[in-house]
Amino acid sequence: MYILGIESSCDETAAAIVSDRKEILSNVIYSQIEEHKPYSGVVPEVAARAHLEKIDVVVKKALAYANLSLGDVNAIAGTCGPGLIGGVIVGATFAKSLAFAKKVPFIAVNHIEAHALSVRLTEEVEFPYLLILASGGHCQICIVHDIDNFQILGRTLDDSVGESFDKVSKLLGFGYPGGPIIEKLYHEGDSEKFSLPRPMCSKGNCDFSFSGLKTAVLNASKKCNSLQDKKDLAASFQKTVAEIMSFKMQQALNFCFDQKIKINAAVISGGVAANLVIRRSLKETCDSVSRSTIPFFVPPVKFCTDNGAMIAWLGVEKFKRNQVNSLDFHPRPRWPLSENFQKIMRAREKVQ
Ligand code: KG4
Ligand code: ZN
Fold this sequence. Notes:
- The protein has two domains: 2-117 and 303-336, ATPase, nucleotide binding domain (Nucleotidyltransferase, domain 5), CATH 3.30.420; 126-298, Nucleotidyltransferase, domain 5, CATH 3.30.420.40.
- The chain is built from twelve helices and ten strands.
- It has helices at residues 33-36, 44-66, 85-102, 111-117, 119-122, 161-171, 178-186, 211-221, 227-258, 276-289, 308-320, 339-351; strands at 2-7, 12-19, 24-31, 75-81, 106-110, 129-134, 139-146, 149-155, 266-269, 296-297.
- The site of zinc ion (ZN) has 5 residues, from α4.
């Protein structure tokens, strides 16, 4: 079975073909970084226009690299949210139109859920697992019990972690996209030079807050006299974020142990999971807190940031369970993960 996945919720136009045997036949990504660079961040109107211009080429390439025609595809999965509404409408409408024309099922994919399940495309990870979902728009810790069944343990109260990388890079004058730039600067700077706060880390819960850290970087930047000072500040920020993420993973693992929730793995996914400093720190934390009884997984770097393969893969998971959607499914710029978990819990309470 072959599923075509189409992604257009932020600044990447992407399409991929994935089979139910986890073969990634193609994975084409057109990045809009150059379009957004002059503005040091994603401009929604620019993004929507660029998706519209590139989507047909990207999908054609995905089919060509897979050596398939549209007639060979069993279903078409498209991101329907959450994300920038202009881009989401472009991708979702394109996916629905192809499904209509080829008379194959359409699968409406939640972009965050696709990040959350992306690890299952490349690794053997069984439900339930603990997940830190860290992207440009989201930062939450949850237990993934199943498809569409997410128990949220904590989330950010303000900025997402990816957003804080982007804002800190911008305020230090290093540009966009912030995550990979700051990660590189970590190796060029002294991460011990600045002592930065770790908001919410005196609290034993799984919530995050990054705006105070960002303000602390802003204040410290006013005392920077040289480029090297700024690199040291970027490096200190990177180190502090890794410490915060590790602390919160520790809290979440402790919660699972205390509540006797048996998890099969600990995972980080989303764009920030591409960060090797954070990956290393989380693995060490997971190994030490669980005494190496819980394996730590992270998708390959190219499947952490936005891509079509994760959309196609969630399409595979849903298609196997006959979870397809009607063509009048409306794009949802806001689409929380926890909706179904709450319904499941209410239904259980009624039964008991
Ligand atoms: O998942 P993603 O591609 O898009 C959203 O769904 O938001 O995540 C994009 C975010 C951006 O904020 C970007 O700066 C961050 O992921 N990011 C990174 C790295 N690569 C991308 N953050 C830290 N380190 C990286 N290497
Ligand atoms: Zn994403």
